[in-house]
Amino acid sequence: MVRKKFGKKEIFIGIACTLFALLMLSLYVWHQTESVSLGYDSAELEYRVIQLEKEVEKLETVKSSLLTLDRVENIARDKLKLSEPEEEQIVYEDIEKER
Predict the structure, then answer these.
(1) φ and ψ of 73, to 5 deg
(2) Does this model's pTM top 0.70?
(3) Those residues with Cβ within 8 angstroms of residue 83's Cβ, 6 or more apart along the chain or in another chain
(4) Which site in 18, 24, 44, 48 is 20 to 30 Å from 2, CA atoms measured?
(5) Whether the Cβ atoms of residue 19 and residue 11 lie closer than 8 Å to each other
(6) Nearest CA to 52 among 63, 44, 64?
(7) What is the pLDDT of residue 4?
(8) What is the distance between the alpha carbons of residues 11 and 2, in angstroms, rounded to a whole number?
């Protein structure tokens, strides 16, 4: 049996094809890894958005409870010592005359 010897050109082409195949395989694996990583990041951000929306709803509820008219009136009377204006303190403007 005679063994065939490969020339430099054939060896170079074989090495180049092997390197090219390894490069393509590496790029494919990298692409798949990045896709999975982006999927995890996307899911994490969606979860964070849901948390923030719940927090906004909770804060809106707190805001509306703090701005009730009864509470504001009690603070004005008790803490700020405000009272209802007297009749001579009220100024009425005639809007029709200004036009």
Answers:
(1) -65, -40
(2) no
(3) 77
(4) 18
(5) no
(6) 44
(7) 80
(8) 19
